Amino acid sequence: MKTYDFVIIGAGITGLSLARQLIRKDSQSSILVLEKEPRFGLHGSGRNSGVLHSGVYYEENSLKARVCGAGAKELACYCDENNLPIARMGKVIVPVREGDDAQIDILHQRATHNGANVAIVDSQQLREIEPEVVSLSGRALHSPDTAVIDPLAVLTQLVHDLLKKGVEIQFDCAVTVADLESSTIIDNRGNRVGYGHLFNAAGQCSDHIARLFGVGNKYMLLPIKGIYFSLDKKSGIQLNGLVYPVPDLAVPFLGVHSVKTIQGSIYLGPTAIPAFGSENYKGMTGIKIDDAIRITFQLIQLYLRNNQGFRKFTNEEAGRFLKRRFVKAAGLLIPKLKVEHLQPSEKVGIRAQLLNKESHELVMDFLVEQKGNTSHILNAVSPAFTSSFAFARHVVQKLTEG
Ligand SMILES: Cc1cc2nc3c(=O)[nH]c(=O)nc-3n(C[C@H](O)[C@H](O)[C@H](O)COP(=O)(O)OP(=O)(O)OC[C@H]3O[C@@H](n4cnc5c(N)ncnc54)[C@H](O)[C@@H]3O)c2cc1C
């Protein structure tokens, strides 16, 4: 049996950024990353909007507020240094419902506190920035530094860097058993590996992995599906940057927005509709009956208790997988948008949103639980891609502090 200083479960952006931070700290460390899939990027880290958020939304003193802005700057530098594509196209956040306007001031306050460069603009300035976009109240929040990157290009570069520095990455290798006493894990091939410290960065499966170590029993991950439609070039709709609605600040989702990729294609999405399995990307695929029952039970609880205004949120989101309902939401941002302008797309992602089963609330912030010589990343939701380098530094630092 081989023992490593550090074993990391999951080769998504969180696991790879942890490996990067650890090897930067001590180039002599032995590090093994275990990934259950044949390649990286098949889940959250390869299925997102690719936006480097600048830290607008997050409540003062939250971990997201502390690491998002710093993470965005570091990842942008990383892209520049490695000639990876990055487009600094900016973003506007626009009120779309009655009552949204007051949130512009709250967001402005939060953004300023978090060190993000933002400005409140009026309807004329908004027209200059995004001629196709209309604000219900006339005002909008402009974040000129928000950028778009290519997530797969970032992951590819990270894997390349890590391998060069002697980090081992094993694919097709799912961790199935953990033994805290002997500090070992066993994978699906029956191989046993020892660790000095273990990081659980298993994304959608991190709650399951944590339970193998007796950690996080009061939590479970709810899979929330995000589908995107692509905007037909023939629609004639031109967007210069990213366009987001003012979000419902009680829940950790940002609302249907526009995503302009590095290649210039425009998508609208993602929805926030329940999935019935952590990998239930399409139809009935990826559904396990016992998981589906647990998820449905928790969703019903959330709906009945209506914590965080979950009922209103669900009613708004329900049916957005139907094009007509989706266009109704997206059309609040871009009035010219018509059903025939949108094409179904293959782009779909699942957010692993943590639920506290005791308080029946969605956890808003990133969460790291430690037990013995193990650390568990339990809520690496958006903006976890943006924040990854700064977040990894925080997690590793926490370790040193004991
Ligand atoms: C639709 C959508 C849009 C988003 N948009 C943005 C955005 O614009 N900006 C942003 O910053 N963030 C965004 N996010 C969030 C961001 O993409 C994720 O939070 C982030 O990628 C999570 O990374 P991760 O490494 O923690 O998880 P993952 O990328 O899911 O990686 C975890 C890995 O662990 C592996 N694994 C699981 N179980 C095991 C096991 N037993 N053994 C070994 N390996 C295992 C999985 O196969 C997976 O590869 C978005 C997310 C979604 C779904």
How would you summarize what this structure contains?
The protein has 402 residues and is α+β, with helices and mostly antiparallel strands. Helix content is 31%, strand content 26%.
Description:
The chain has a domain at 1-87 and 146-217 and 364-402: FAD/NAD(P)-binding domain, CATH 3.50.50.60. The model has no long low-confidence stretch (mean pLDDT 95). Strands 1, 2, 9, 10, 11, 12, 20 and 21 form an eight-stranded mixed beta sheet that branches. It contains ten helices and 21 strands. The protein has helices at residues 13-25, 63-81, 101-113, 123-129, 151-164, 206-212, 289-305, 310-317, 323-330, 384-401; strands spanning 2-9, 31-34, 51-52, 86-87, 91-94, 119-121, 140-143, 147-149, 168-170, 175-179, 184-187, 192-200, 219-231, 242-245, 257-260, 266-269, 273-274, 342-356, 361-362, 368-371, 374-377. The protein has 402 residues and is of the alpha+beta class. Bound molecules: flavin-adenine dinucleotide.
